[in-house]
């Protein structure tokens, strides 16, 4: 019984402490003594491993303490360095204050002079930047910018005499350039985007021309480009100036220079008649079309009425009846009704005059209608254009008065076209109507004379 108990205990201990060792051992214990030895060896190995681990932890803890002491020592050393650098910084700052104070004392009254010189240099820099003389003399702004930086009150430097004299020289050269007409070579960009080196003529600080065409200068990019559109009335002077070598040459100068001339650009950008007409869009073309139709009708009727009036006047002076004109047909009616009573004759003649009236007054009412409708169509186009303009203002705002003015100008163009058609139409209607009335007056006069002659004969 006791022996069985010991076996059970030994198996439990073996299972608890030596499972790993037994599992790793390929040979199976055959006796209880061997099993106990295996368990004892296993416990010893585990104890030794724990001791080594504790020793390693102790060593690492000692190393950490050493590293901590080393870091604290380095911190103390850096604090000492920081204190030293702060002291040096304060000392250097005081030295700078003392040096700047001595510099200001050395400047004396020159401080105010340098202030004026700084302002003058800044103004000159802007003039040089926007001047067309930069195309010939190159960029001059950087040197002036460096000198302005030295003239600043916070600067510890002073401009040299050479730098001040260079500014004076550039100002004098710019003044002389205002009265010069000189030629030089420069890169010019044409409207196609191609750049060519060609001879450029500078007229003072106002205009640049090359090969008989005006040029523009962009101060931001420094690019000289040919104006995409040229004034025809100014090209002759530009060509003469480009080819002239001496003497006086007529040339149209834009006094608003110096970037090619704002006035010249404004005149060039002014829309042509074709562009103005195109601004009227569909309504404008309709107005022009009915205007052309009205003029053609008026001219045709004038030709017809002039010929008819000549034939009527010739018939009035002739004793022979010609039925190819209105008066001849009326005389033929009077001759055909020679035996009729006076009242019947008068009615027949009046009937014939009524038949002749539509042919004489043909087209007069059409001209009158065109003269009345044209301004109404112009008003329609204007109202439509204003609606579109206000819609654009609603979407994009009124921040650009130029764009808004352009839209209003385009909208009013239809009104101009309507008036341009209506005014001549009214005049043509007056002329044509007067000519037709004169022919009718002759017919009525002759008809009344026929009736009066027949009445006297009875």
UniProtKB/TrEMBL annotation:
InterPro entries: ExbB/TolQ_transport, MotA/TolQ/ExbB-rel, MotA_ExbB_proton_chnl. This is Outer membrane transport energization protein ExbB. It is a multi-pass membrane protein. Residues 1-23 form the signal peptide. It is found in: Cell membrane; Membrane. Its main location: membrane. Pfam families: MotA_ExbB (PF01618). Keywords: Cell membrane, Coiled coil, Membrane, Protein transport, Signal, Transmembrane, Transmembrane helix, Transport. Residues 324-444 form the MotA/TolQ/ExbB proton channel domain. It comes from Umboniibacter marinipuniceus. Belongs to the exbB/tolQ family. One of its GO terms (biological process) is protein import. GO terms for cellular component: plasma membrane. The chain crosses the membrane at residues 283-308, 376-398, 404-428. Residues 68-109 form a coiled coil.
